[in-house]
Amino acid sequence: MIVPCLGINDNGHLTIAGRDALALAEKYGTPAYFIDEETIRANCRAYKAALSKYAPEGSIPLYAGKALCCAAIYRIIAEEGLGADVVSAGEIATAVLAGFPMERAYFHGNAKTDSDIRYAISAGVGTFVVDNFDELSALDRIAGELGVRQRVLLRITPGIDPHTHRKIITGSVDSKFGVAIETGQAINFVREALEKKSIELCGLHCHIGSQIFEPDPFIEAASIMVEFAKSCKKEFGWEPEILNLGGGFGVRYIEDHPHINIDENIKKVCGTVASICEEAGLRVPKIFLEPGRSIVANAGVTLYTVCSVKEITGYKNYVAVDGGMTDNPRYALYSSPYTIIVANRASEPADFECTVAGRCCESGDLLAEGVKIQKCERGDILAVLCTGAYNYSMASNYNRVPRPPIVMLAQGSEYIAVERESYDDIVRLDRVR
Ligand SMILES: *Cc1c(COP(=O)(O)O)cnc(C)c1O
Q: Strand 340-342 to strand 381-385: parallel, antiparallel, or no bridges (unpaired)?
């Protein structure tokens, strides 16, 4: 199964973490995100176990909070012993609310403002991942003013094209993120960081992209980064304590996507780092990874109510639901494929070819095109699978549609992690003069 916690019960209804999907829809309303806590924990443990097996002590996964950011997630991540990759003051505030140990937070982003920097330092963020020369100077100045010596990783662009979707490639030389090795600017970045009084340079970071299934691009990036570390040692006598290889392990959204073996991939990547370091006479750094989607995606299912089934004779069929791009913009943005099941007809044949459309006034507001699902009608419950990542976190109020709640399903208990927005929430900041 694309989502491990799913099943079908005797009524032919889909079950999510052992609960009847129809009962969940009834109880919490639609649309709503349902997240299985056990799946998140299992994913965390897979990364953690592999890094402790194959990488030096102190190597940990950092959960990339942008995939699904709410206080309940940070609590789970903290309990599982992961660090966190945070990208904004808002994400930091969320982690702080959850009582996340902020020394395990790594602050990313290519356009941090002075106030972001100040806020992060005062919130106790352990390490900054500095993206560019301007940020380095600003951080040095502000850390100096606040009387701290700030731990830092430098974001380096290794120049890798992992052959995924254009909008999610980030490791190529002309990326908006990081400083490139190829142009000779990265070595100067390290030099400047080492010269700054209020900066403690702890290591290097790269992130080559997302939804990558094979280990090869990570291995290639790791080799380039270790070669770069070698030049740093030669030039400055400095060696990274941490090599952070970023996120991006792929997720199976549809049956056609390959299975991914986290243990095997991490073993290969760590093996490559260790062997190149040994050859180069470098100490093997702690290896960090920053999984986002592969921690939360397959823990999530969104339930919708079918509002209409429109058969345009000789053309195509539409199934329209009570949500769409406002709660899941990924099809509209990236044409990302999803697996869809009619929850109350889960054991019937999936032979109705259709386009699943959202409720917004926008032709591009679709959740899937040309998918085969069970024949359905108004009032049926539609389940879109594998929506734990980049759904809630990318949701909007376009058309003033309230955002759905997040319901966490744990073993033996369930709770609302984020309430459904009300119409009061929608107009809360509006003022009529
Ligand atoms: C987006 C991002 C991640 C997480 O990527 P996933 O594809 O969700 O695993 C990790 N690190 C950085 C720097 C990112 O920008």
A: antiparallel
